[in-house]
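Follow-up to my earlier ticket, as requested here are the two runs.
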Amino acid sequence: MKRPLAVIGFSMLLVLTLFSKTNNSNAASVTLAVSLALLFVSLFIKPLRQNMTVPTALLSICTALCLFVTANAQYEIISKIYNDTTVTVSGSLISLPTTNGSLKYYTVRTDEVNGAKEHINIRIASSSPIDLEPTDTLTAKLDTYVLGTEDDEFLEYYRSKNILVGGTFNGDDAQVVKGNNKNINSLILKVRYKLYNEITSVLPNDYGAVVCGLVLGEKSALSERVSNAFRLCGVSHLFAVSGLHVSIWSSLIYGKLRKFGLGNRKSSAVSILFCLFFMLLTGANPPVIRAGFMMILVYAANIVQKEAEPINSIGFSLIVMLFQNPYCALSISLWLSLLATLGILILYNGINDILKKPFEKIPSKAVKSAINYVISLVAVCMSVNIFTLPVYFFKFKSISLVLLEANLIMVFLGKLCMEIAGAGSVLSLIGLKFIGTPLITVSGAVAKVLIASALHLSSLRYLLMPVTSPLLIAVFGISMATLIFMAHILKKKGKPLRITALCLALVFVLCGTYVYAKSLSTPEIIVRQSDGGTSAVIKYRGYSAVIFADNGDYAASSVCDIIDDNAVSRIDVLALYAPEERARKLIESYDVGEILTDDPDLCDKVYYEGKLSNIEYHTISLSALTVATQNDFCQVIFNGKTTLICLDASSPPEDYRCDRLICCEQYKDTVNTENFSQTIYTKPDGEPVRVVLS
């Protein structure tokens, strides 16, 4: 059997992803019984027994299901013990503190709970900072609750991080014992803490946050606008410490050791130790664990003088991660990192060879070298994005049209910034600040260019292409299935396979162009209703308006989700019927052209330098679509037809007459439907209602 570790790792990953997503223990138990029966049968079928691929996959499935059932049972126990209760805990930090609004968050690994030994990760929220460092021990009385119970996405996120419990301080009862925790994890986190402080002390702004993100994967201090700009450009992977970081630093160390005369085996052994250290230093997130173990196997192969098999190495890293935390199969960053690596391994050489052919006869070595470098980056970008498309289909819902250009510019700058800042922070840490500080300052200048590039590209209109169309997903699936069939069943290689791939790529591009053009030319209103009020996103021909009249605690985040899911990259007009503190996330996350408000002091309360207008009786043109705002209502006029969006539950429309009314279902008994050709009711906290204008 070829690649046994790959068969085991990928079988476990797929099964755990499916069952962790559905979260059905009963179905897992039934599937486990069926898999065990099939495993038993497969051992009596000679061809299957001799090849061992099928029995190995079935055994891996059974193992994964056992892990899932055990993890689910443990989660249920934790939920019963820690939901809505008060406990006294003692423990230490396992990650750097983060800030969100007025709250500080500390993730602590407990040593004791209510005086008994128990190890569990708790995310503690505090309204005031705590003088807590990685080597300190915190003892506190907490009001605890289970994280993510109100939102499936948050639940999946916290499970993938192995953080299941949240807590808040019960009064001021908290004690910190300084420096008494000397275990290896705390000491390494202390190094991370000091490196972070070395960078932020020189660059206490977004430049420093970008540098920390590139070097340490720590981007919690990055402003919403800059973070969103990198995401919209398709380069937020720069902040996910993974293969790029591990390979650069470990290869650099390996190369330097070899240059100084250390043997191959000793250099490889030191590089393995560095990979382990680096994984802990950067937070041991799933992508860095995957990349770290891949590199460890590469260096281990050097020691035993054999060549590492990349796909097997990936399988091994998956096995290690899934045994550590079965729920890490839900990590989007892991899936992106995994698919990107597979894309490079499978597609890079073929794409690189095709792109290089037209330039083979260039006589100048310097020009040819520069062209080959650019082609290499393009080939990597194309390989990565082809394989990561499924994640965009089902998770991100859109893809940046400047992704290639952004990667060409920013990957090089990001790598340069990472190397300069990494060297500078380490030199500062060991007392050579006179060298380290200038290097960190230089890295800040590079980060400034990165931020400016991201902000400029993300402000472009028509930036995002929606990829949720069933047509697009079907074409991609059929294309991949066709290529796999040709390569592995028909054994077609070389020119026939390349011509087929190019034809399928052309079909996909044409379908994508059709979907994109249709999305731009279709005027839509997406309305979200909650108990706190109404919000709406209006989009047409690359223009957008957001009506925000929701006083709910997480209303702005929900509207951001609608904006992101509908391929909107900028907000031309934001009409604020709710207080600015509720809409702060919207204002600070996107490029907003104009804000309509009745608060003339809004700019003093939030960071906004754009145009302010009064919301009452204001009219905006979005291409051929008109939006008119007034107290309690918003009118959308398109093609001579008017749609009225009712925003205030206390003011049902009585004397209005128009083509369409959109309002909360609680108006059903008070609205005179004869005044409207069509009445659409929204449901509080239900799915957003999509209305296509005609």
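Run two:
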Amino acid sequence: MYRNLRQGAGESAPPVKLDSSVEMMWGVKIPMRDGVNLNATVFRPKGAEPLPVIFLLTPYIADSYQNRAAYFSRNGYVFAMVDCRGRGNSGGDFDPNFNEGRDGYDLVEWFAAQPFCDGQVTMWGGSYGGFDQWMTLREQPPHLKTIVPVASAHMGVDFPMTNNVAYPYLLRWMTFTSGVTPNMGLFTDEAFWNEKYRELYRTHAPFKSFDQIVGNFSTQWQKWVAHPAIDDFWQPLAIKPEEYDRIDMPILTITGHYDGDQPGAFAYYKRHMASQSPSRDEHYLIVGPWDHAGTRTPNRSVGGLDFGEPSLIDMHKLHKDWYDWTLKSGTKPEFLKDRVAYYVLPSNEWKYASSIDAIASETRKLYLDSTGMTNDVFHSGTLTTDPPSGSAADNYVYDPLDTRPGDAEKDDGDPNYLTDQTPDLNLFGGGLIYHTEPFAEATEITGFLKLTAWIAIDVPDTDFVVTVAEVLPDGRYVFLTRDLKRARYRESLTTEKLVTPGEVICYEFDSFMFFSRLVGKGSRLRLTFASPNTIQLQKNYNSGGVVAEETAADARTAHVTLYHDADHPSYLELPIVARSADEASASPAAAPITPSAKPDM
């Protein structure tokens, strides 16, 4: 599951063929300010007057996006596919993420000066391409008129780590983008990568040595792993508050419930909304039910969930309608009925709001409680609206040398990863589980959860993962959201502060992923609290040292106590959305769950 929530790569789209109405310019060399030439393939309507230019800046090789180029060049735009420096046919050296803002500025201004351009330039792209758009916007090129960042990675927020917890998938991505040509065969070899993840996990080798285990000795890997916090290395890749204040153009942000770069997309969106930008009211947001790849090419069924026919937005047309509106004085896209569009599962409906904060009508607190038996689904604690009055604390043990949990994981390509409850059925004693009572009526939960938990550990550091799922009346399970935290970064992602063993500390888990779910009548919520012990994440050996350098020799067993008494109330906050009488009468009782194909990268 962890990989399926990560930043992906590659491109999949409905086929669009080039025809005689389109002409191509191959091998266009575009000079950057330092003398390096980036390579572009440009498509445009044959014989057309000057038009707006849409360009994509990608490390995944321009040819991967010919479907997009064909569509837009057949629909009244010039579309340019540009290889990042050091990739494909572009010059220079590829330094992932660090050159895109400056290069993006130079590309905007070069395209604006070409005879085929009417002086208006915009961008297209998701994931790395979404990051490119934000970095280019930060540089304020005069001829950039709008951006449509999709599934936008935000360095230090969701890539190359989440809340300062790294993942070995990073090296898989670096191997995919190593050299100048695509390495798609190697990148998509699930068996190879899962075996390498397991080798790192089973041998307790230091995380930083993973490049040696894989066989791709990477200076990039070593450099990135050496910066586990949001320090001076990463901070230049974030947009400063005063830079958000200067944004003055319409923006369309697109992300998904199960998009691994959703945290990044929301980081940009929220920071823009909190700024003094004159164009905040022109920033629109779409949150669909999709995974990472689905934000560009929606799939109806992913991870065992059927999203329904309304989820299948024509992204080509939506982008074109947006560009027509912002660049050609067209009409506002019909789909954008308000500034925020979000999709509710399993009622499979689009709903709208003026802002993220306007969606929920109340915040409901559910307090953690138990009788001291909370270590599996059959002996669980409770989530209740009644505040605790003096209940016992709950305990679990996390032994980093115990490899049973990781060895028990299914192959990471499991097509039903959103509905597979196997991890909760056996935590090997290494976690806590809490359930609500069955819901008396269908209840919409939309937004971001927050967990406040009072915790003591007997080691200077460890990691925590919190997962929330819906358990349907028939026992089926639907993953909703999760959060991840490293204890030493509980107060700040820029500065570590080790834990005093035995100290009871209040932790706030406030970076859950956004979701929208109509929890059915008779369903329950399940909260699972544990320390991650998986092949998909960097292992914390709890010593308080440099995590990337820790091995079995550094391992310390963590005894974790979660308090939920009157003096230490631990509780989960739910954003509840009031539903009309008509909506309530139409509410489905259960979620459709179907087998699905393996999700795209």
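The only thing I checked on run two: Confidence is low (pLDDT under 50) at residues 1-7, 595-601. Let me know what else you need.
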